[in-house]
Automatic annotation (TrEMBL):
Family designation: Belongs to the site-specific recombinase resolvase family.
Gene3D superfamilies membership: Homeodomain-like, Resolvase, N-terminal catalytic domain
Pfam families membership: Resolvase
InterPro entries: Recombinase_CS, Resolv_N, Resolvase-like_N_sf, SSR_resolvase
Keyword Metal-binding set for record: no
Occurrences of domain Resolvase/invertase-type recombinase catalytic (ranges): 1-144
A single MF term (Gene Ontology): DNA binding
Protein keywords: DNA integration, DNA recombination, DNA-binding
Top-level taxon of the source organism: Bacteria
Active site per database record: S9
Name of the featured protein: DNA recombinase
Biological process, per Gene Ontology: DNA integration
Length: 204
């Protein structure tokens, strides 16, 4: 039997395209769910797996339908292969384990290569995002738009921030508790403690 599995990670996303692909492929049964791919705690997927037997075929749009964690994708792939359930990944035609049944070792080699490539692509994408963020921050700094960890409440502050800072200082000088100052000004206790430390350093 050919099983189709469609998944999106949130209820606001649409399954139509995946379902259409699975129907056109000729799946006998199609399971669908809207559930995060961070792990395999997915009731519909588990239900489908419980019905799959030796010789069945699982069809998915792409490998990310299994999950977002590369190790879990590898583990699930291995489990399916050990149960002699074939796998078809529609957006990567090379990942059709039925093609390699008669070629001993070749199917595993192809799977290993593609899954390794997938892992590399995931890591590269993460690094690309981190690099873009760093470059964006550097550009913003040069344009004077990036505030970073700049403090709002200090003795050189202006406007409303200066008024609040002065009130915190006054309260501290009158030995009002940090919690009461927090309630009065709405500032976090960490911010108030930071102002208190600065005052103490300046008074030394």
């Amino acid at each position: 039997m050919i099983f189709g599995y469609a998944r999106v990670s949130s209820k606001s996303q649409n399954l139509s395209r995946q379902l259409k692909e699975l129907e056109e492929y000729g799946c006998d049964r199609i399971y669908q769910e809207k559930q995060s791919g961070k792990n395999f705690e997915r009731p519909i997927y588990k239900e489908m797996r419980s019905k799959m037997r030796f010789g069945d075929v699982l069809v998915v749009h792409d490998l990310s339908r299994f999950g977002r964690n590369k190790q879990e994708i590898r583990d699930e792939w291995k489990a399916l292969i050990e149960e002699e359930i074939d796998i078809v990944v529609l957006n990567m035609p090379i990942l059709d384990t039925r093609k390699y049944r008669e070629l001993e070792g070749v199917g595993q080699l192809v799977s290993d290569l593609v899954l390794t490539l997938l892992s590399w692509m995931v890591d590269e994408e993460r690094e690309r995002i981190r690099t873009a963020q760093r470059e964006g921050i550097e550009i913003a700094k040069k344009q004077g738009k990036f505030q970073g960890g700049k403090k709002r409440y200090h003795k050189e502050a202006t406007g409303k921030d200066k008024v609040i800072y002065n009130e915190v200082v006054r309260c501290l000088n009158e030995n009002i508790s940090i919690m009461d100052i927090h309630r009065k000004t709405g500032l976090s206790r960490n911010t108030i403690y930071s102002i208190k430390r600065e005052i103490e350093v300046e008074s030394i």
